[in-house]
TrEMBL record:
Record keywords, A-Z: Membrane, Transmembrane, Transmembrane helix
Highest taxon, organism lineage: Eukaryota
InterPro entries linked to this entry: NAD(P)-bd_dom_sf, SDR_fam
Pfam families reported in the protein's UniProt record: adh_short
GO function terms (MF aspect): 3-dehydrosphinganine reductase activity
GO cellular component: endoplasmic reticulum membrane
Protein name per Swiss-Prot or TrEMBL: 3-dehydrosphinganine reductase
Transmembrane segments: 248-268
One GO term of the biological process aspect: 3-keto-sphinganine metabolic process
Amino acid sequence: MVWCKRSSYYPGKRILIIGGSSGLGLSLAKDAKSRGCKVTITARSLSSMEALQKEYALLTVDITDEKSVASLPTDFDMIFCCAGYALPSLAKDIEILQVERQLNCNFLGPVRVYLHFLQSASLKHRKHLVLIASTLALHSFGGYGMYAPSKAALSSFYEAVECESSMQGLDLSIYYVSTIQSPGFIEEQKHKPLFTKKIEGSSMGTDSLPDNRAKHLLDSLPSTRIVYSDFITRLFSKSAHICSLADIFAVIIAPVFWLGFKIFSYYMTHKYYPKRAKNNGLKKKE
């Protein structure tokens, strides 16, 4: 990824926002357009975007359907994968069907999008895919037994493929975002246990408004791959379970170990990556 000044990073970029009809996606569309981007938004149906047709190019896609994702055009510089949802519940009310549905939308959906755009990326024509995770992808708490695993899987997927993807011309970023006061959040509240509402109540400030969450992401992307929506989320990312003296020692040395491990893993990936795969990154065309 090439780091740029904010003022020169966005103008003229062709941006696709998957799940752009409301919430964070719509706020990203508005903000990106104000920064000089050419914005296309998607939803599962055109009817949910009728009021937006004068402002943006529109596409329909269902990220839970592989054929639907495969039909997406690929002539974009940046892709934001915002589609997703949460269905909170008590642990005793967890249903396998609902777990599967959230995994299909929140994890497998972005993976489908990733694979689709990886095929069209190249070192000559790079693309940038932004995955939307959650604070709960880092650590979770009661009420999110069906949702948090889907975002944790997305976070793990990002870590596993980020280096290789860059070598193929697809730059990846991930946004660990806390509460967003969106239509989806209002729907969540209908199912959310009271204790879950109390735990996350402190995250309901003005920062949680979709416009503010979107601005923070767009402001951050020119200079970093991993974006945290707020300081609490950043704390979540650096936190660990401490149950013994050995854990305390591990917490102290973990930052140094992790830095060394990341450097080592990047070096080994670049050194031993199949030469044919590297050459494919140069040969692929839009």
